[in-house]
Amino acid sequence: MTHGVRISIDLGGTKIEAAVLDADGLFIDRRRVANPGDYDAMLDTVVQLVEASEAETGHRFDRVGVGIPGSPSPATGLVRNANSIWLNGRSLQGDLERHLNRPVRLANDANCMALSEATDGAGAGARSVFGVILGTGCGGGLVLDGRLIEGCNGVAGEWGHIPLPNPTPDEDTLCWCGRRNCLETWISGSGLARDHAAVTGQTLTAHDIIAAARSGDPAAEATLARHRDRLGRGLAMVVNLIDPEVIVIAGGLSNAPEIVDGAFDALRPHVFSDVVTTRVVRADHGDSSGVRGAAWLWPA
Ligand SMILES: [Zn+2]
Predict the structure, then answer these.
(1) Neighbouring-strand partners of residue 182
(2) 138, β-bridge pairs
(3) What mean pLDDT comes out for the span 210-239?
(4) Could you tell me the pTM of the whole model?
(5) In which band, very low, low, confident or very high, does the pLDDT at 1 lie, cut at 50, 70 and 90?
(6) Is residue 196 part of a domain?
């Protein structure tokens, strides 16, 4: 292994990405392929990506960091909570280590994002960073003093499956996880679209709703206002519990300035403090945060 050069894998629901980063966090090599959606084919694909990156860069890597949907159970080591459900119940770390013939560290993709942004992204220099992903789903991760906090149950930062705080009587949903009113059902991209459809009868994507609001559509503007208020309630709970210096927002919705820029004003009234200096910012590394954070799972 060359000092400071790392390889990582981001195992996404639709694609698998491999990256080689140098000690300064610059990409030396990146490659991305479609996720075959089949467990054994996925393992072979990861091996091919690592071998191709090694051939391209001339480095040999003794260990690999991998970001995954869901997380390994601390009790069994088996993957759970993945929305790519074919991963659940699998001994992914052991299987990857056998296929790659070297040690592997796994972490939840939102945790990787938070670690990436805390290391050299929008939360760099802060002692405490809470990262949230507002994408198809809603994840979160906590980094304190540069260290990822995974928790004794491996669910630290699993913000998306906490109930929406202070709900109104008409705010009542059932989440895919079986719980009621999970934040994910309200503030993810799919939650935004679901809410818009429930109120207006119009089936639009989150992207189309944001575009409609920009062109002055009152119903779309109202949907974004409801979303802003719910995001504020959810983030205020994070501030009251953890009080991070920086909240980094990533995922597809973070590309819309309306979502990120309104978040601070929305959370402010719900925080139990006379002063709120929390910075709420968009992720610096965008879609790359997952694969970058997975690289930081191993020390140099
Ligand atoms: Zn849930």
Answers:
(1) 163
(2) 134
(3) 98
(4) 0.94
(5) very low
(6) yes
